[in-house]
Amino acid sequence: MKKYNENQILFIIRWAPISFIVIISIIITYLRLNDNNILHNNEILELKKNFIQTKNNLIKNDVYALEKYLQYSKAKSENELRVLLKDKVYRAHNIASRIYFENKDKNKDEILNLIKDALRYMRFNDNRAYYFIHNIKGKSLLYPLNKSLEGKNYASLHDINGYYFVQTIMKKVENKTEGYDEYYWVKEKNLSSKAYKKIIFTKYFEPLNIVISTGDYIIDYENNIKIQVLKYINTLSIQKHSSLFIINKDKKILSHSNVNLLNKEFGELPLNVQNTILDISEKIPRKEGFINYINTFDAKINLKDEKQTTFIKVFNPWKWRIGSAYYDKELETLIFNEKEKLNKRIDDDFLFTLKASIFSTLAFLLVSFFLSSLVSKRFISYKNELLKEVEKNRLKDSLLAQQSKMAAMGEMLANIAHQWRQPLSVISTASSGIRLKSEFSSLEEEDLYHSLETIDNSTIYLSKTIDDFSNFFKTSKELTRTNTKKIWKNVESLIFAQFKTLNISFVLNIEDEEVYLLKNELIQVLLNLLSNAKDQFVLNKQGGCFIFVNMYIKDENLHIKIKDNAGGIDNHIISRIFEPYFTTKYRAQGTGIGLYMSEQIVTRSLKGSISATNRKYKHNEVDYEGALITIIIPTNI
Questions:
Q1: CA 462 → CA 82, 415, 458, 459, 534, distances in Å?
Q2: Are residues 181 and 216 in contact, defined by beta-carbon separation less than 8 angstroms?
Q3: pLDDT (tens digit, 9 = 90+) per residue, 526-535?
Q4: Model's pTM, two decimal places?
Q5: CATH number for the domain including 278?
Q6: What DSSP letter does each residue of 597-614 carry, written as one string?
């Protein structure tokens, strides 16, 4: 069994580090690959996040850029209109000046009529804009749209906001200046009553003391600008395959890369396109935001029914919804390509990790094998040294046991002397009496029988004493089923006479309990402990000596407590009394092995424990102090 354990230990020493290294290498490789996988997934997530953020920012910036272009075009349209109106008025002013200088010989009314005839049919801005003339009093001198209104005074005319714009014209005449003005007016032939902003430019014509004016509705001019803007945007969309699109308030698609959808009435559009436009109008009614929908606009078959992410912004001045989109399929393609790259990188990293792991594992295995072999040799060497030390200790313990036995034999011989003194005296007395009576011829048969019976009883007692001592000195260590009271009787039979001579009394509290243990070993321990107590009484030369013996069963353990009133053990040495060769007696009186052997027997043979303490207590109303020895051993070893 021991050989098996040694081989097992050597096997562990040799292979445990190697197994540990292999396991650690596998774990590290697994963790590395797992980390790579987590990193891979995180990179994919980061890629998605960055792609979405980049694409969102891109289409958002496209829309913002288009919005700025529209804002610029709108602002530019008003400026262009103002410049155009001024230029047209200046041209009219030049025409009037030429007519005037060419016809100075005519009166002013004739010259005015010539100027009116020259300007009446002049049109620009898609025939919307015309010239009109007022005098200093606000009288209309030229109104090409309705000649019947000429000659009427419009000084009190105002727009829907209560602004008297004709009076401003009169001031221009009065101040002999020029300038812009604007007011809100209902357009001609407009069925609704909505007023629109109109810009006019007025210039004073000094020769006739009149002002020549022209104007145009900004919305009409902006519509022209819108057409130009949309042409430009649509050209870019087609050329660059842009994802920009524009939808007006009437849900008409004004700009898109799919030209088949442009400028169609809402009802003429395919139903799925109508639903998408309605979805856009509902989700982004006023400001801006991102929406997702299935593509229905694109003419390309491979992009039909693909999911799109779109950013929409409302351009409030023209009530346009401008947007830009990207296909989520782009993300899938990008992720697929990126996954291919990452998978290749992971495969390369896996091969590198595997090679590095195998190389490092082999290196560690070689080192571990060398170290384990070295440790194995050291272990064998240490084991051999340990066996030598164990053998030395075994010889020493054997010697101690022999010394303890010899000391016990000495004690027993003294006990035998005490035990035999009385029966030998009885035998001697009986035999002497028989001889005397025989010499004086007074020996009666009854006296002879009585004396012989006395001699016979004494020899039986002597024989029993020899048996008790012989049983004690038997070397067999067999487990015996007995009980606590029998154990004490065996002890008492060996020491009773000697302890009685010394007037040492026993106070017993022994429960009659069955036990299964090494009986002779326990008896030897009890004899050693009682002998030590006896020696202390002799040393103290005290009277009234008591030894208290308690035996009882608790928690399947036999508890034995031996207490005396010999004054106790010195506190400085109480912790050392179970050491070998340690004694508190004079060198001539003790060997120092009794308590040590008792401790060895209790702990090794009986599998129990032994301890010593000092106790103060009362007995028969008298205070005593002494040593308390406690033994606890299993009832069934």
A1: 154, 12, 6, 5, 24
A2: no
A3: 988 998 888 8
A4: 0.47
A5: 3.30.450.20
A6: HHHHIIIIIS--EEEEEE
